[in-house]
Amino acid sequence: MPSVITDSMIVEWVAGFLWPLFRIAGFFMTAPLIGSQLLPANMRLLLSVMVTLTVAPLLPPVPVIDLLSLEAFLVIAQQVLIGVAFGFILQIVYQVFALAGQIYAMQAGLGFASMADPANGVNTTVMAQFLVIGGNMLFVSMNGHLAVIQILTDSFQLIPIGYTGIDRELFWEIVNLGGWMFSAAFLIVLPGITALLMVQAGLGIVTRAAPSLNIFSLGFPFMMTFSLFIAWIGLATITSHFEAIFDFGLGFLRDWIESRA
Fold first, then answer.
1. Closest of 161, 141, 155, 133 to residue 65, by C-alpha
2. Cβ neighbourhood burial of 214 (10 Å; 0-12, 13-18, 19+)
3. pLDDT of residue 215
4. Torsions phi, psi of 122, nearest 5?
5. What is the C-alpha separation between 164 and 85, in angstroms, rounded?
6. Which end of the chain is more exposed for a tag (fewer CB within 10 A), N or C?
7. What angle do CA 130, 132, 133 make, to 5 degrees?
8. What would the pLDDT profile of 209-223 be if each residue is shown by its tens digit?
9. Where exactly are the structural domains of the chain?
């Protein structure tokens, strides 16, 4: 005799797909590179559905909740908040590169060389955009997107679907990540800024030794040329900085999820 499909079975199947979808979709709508304006919203939603269909069989059983009740809306809000928090943490990690490029460009006199950032819809310096693009390429080449999806999948094991999830401690840790973002960006460009400071000191000595020289017409092109030379030298060590920042960001997500177990 063929098995009879009941209403409870259909509700269980739908819930087993919808609850993970809200968390995954919340992450993809705010995650860097995927959640940017470069990718249309319908493509992000399609990607969320595909990832949910892939990981749904690996997830633990979902709680039985009436889909048209107030409890269901509370669970939906909790899952979306968890996904958005994950994506926001990665956004902070990515903004380290943009902030480092902005700091160096302003110190090197390259702040006027700006361009439209298609991902965020704002104007940013070319140096910041260069670092962000390099970070995106390195993140994908390191299979960072797969590591993020793995962490997101593991979160369903350690943070099961329900009313518990984001707590007050995580919000304070995210606030502290803001201070880490500025310190990490400054450490990346600290050698370049130090070299530029030495060049400016040398130009000041030349001005005092030869007052007839026009420091504005001589120093401005020299500073730009030397700043680009310093940036070219710094590319030899920028990969290690990128790897350390990505490891910290992914480790932060992993440690917080495991602390909820």
1. 161
2. exposed
3. 65
4. -130, 165
5. 14
6. N
7. 65
8. 766 666 666 667 777
9. 7-259
Q: What is the pLDDT of residue 2?
A: 47
Q: With the CA atoms of 241, 242, 247 and 248 taken in that order, what torsion angle do they form, in degrees rounded to the nearest 10?
A: 70
Angle between helices 70-108 and 7-30 (to 10 degrees): 10
Residues 15 and 67 sit within 8 Å (Cβ to Cβ): yes
Q: Residue 65: name the closest of 55, 51, 77, 75 by CA.
A: 75
Here the tokens at position 69 are 């009740």
Whole-prediction pTM = 0.77
Q: Are 84 and 30 in contact, with CB atoms under 8 Å apart?
A: yes
**What phi and psi values does residue 167 have, to the nearest 5 degrees?**
-115, 175
Q: How far apart are the C-alpha atoms of 105 and 114, rounded to whole Å? A: 10
Does residue 158 contact residue 261 with C-beta atoms inside 8 Å? yes
Closest CA relative to residue 96, chosen from 179, 173, 27, 39: 179
Classified as helix, coil or strand, 54 is: helix
CA dihedral 130, 136, 139, 142 (to 10 degrees): -80
